[in-house]
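The following record pairs a protein chain with its ligand, UFG.
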Amino acid sequence: MTRILVTGGAGYVGSTATAILADRGYEVIVFDDLSMGHADAVDARATLIQGTLLDADALRSALAGCQAVIHFAGKSLVGESVEKPKLYHHVNVDGTHNLLDAMAIHGIDKIVFSSSAATYGQPVDDPITEESVASPTNPYGASKLAIDKMITATGISAISLRYFNVAGAFESSNGWLPERHNPETHLIPLVLRATETNPLKIFGTDWDTKDGTCIRDYVHVVDLIEAHILALGALKPHTHEIVNLGSGGGYSVREVITTAEEILGRPVPAIESPRRAGDPATLVASIVKAKSLLGWVPTRDLKTMISDAVKSQAQ
Ligand code: UFG
């Protein structure tokens, strides 16, 4: 059986990966500091090791017997990264340096890394391809780009998956694995919890888009994890590939609200608010490379993402 180290395996995306990998017969070792993740989100078939990427010894012992790594762990709040750039560099970049060193000690030469659309910064292309200029506009994106470059320099077998907007939820054999960020900054969970007294703030209604609100490319977390499993099988010796993961199409903030209203059967209270600093108008992925390299095709639409998010929150 293939034993895989899943860093960040107690988080929203990582815990979904852990459950799906366990379903597929992988032996999963989760390495997570539980600063953002939840121990109760870790599938019972996996082994949870509580540890930080900054602890090289803990990483070394967690990797014993593993054949590959899926690396989700890291700090991931764009706003916080602007306030604490050194922290983001330290945890994400230095932490991944420790991970790569520990992998080298064990002779483990396979990694799938969760990179981000934030590496591209203000997009110059629509859709964004892997060849598009990578010029991050915040320390979070800069840390992900630095890691991508560091992985290339190691010469190991690697695929960096650049996520666009991840949404939805997975119903594991133990129940739904909801998005449980604290603080929550992502649009769909905030749409679902908006009330008359605490309405959703629509960040900007004067963007140069079809309805004036920002356009993003939403991808279902289960489709996203499917791409990680395909990536494990597509790793090639001494080759580092960068691959975008989105759906290849965009929805505006207003379209997300309208779709949620249809699913909820009630209006979503929302108020027009100023633009959020650092937001680009439109971020849409080209997924041509994901299709050709991984054979990946996302199959779950925005309605499925929102209705799965609703079910997971209601649990
Ligand atoms: N939005 C609102 N109101 C809110 C929250 C979000 O209008 O209360 C809007 C944002 O302005 C944006 C869209 O909804 O247009 C999506 O916002 P999210 O915060 O959900 O996601 P982002 O597109 O900002 O962020 C995503 C990932 C980040 C990644 C970034 C890349 O979540 O990890 O894309 O730019 F860094």
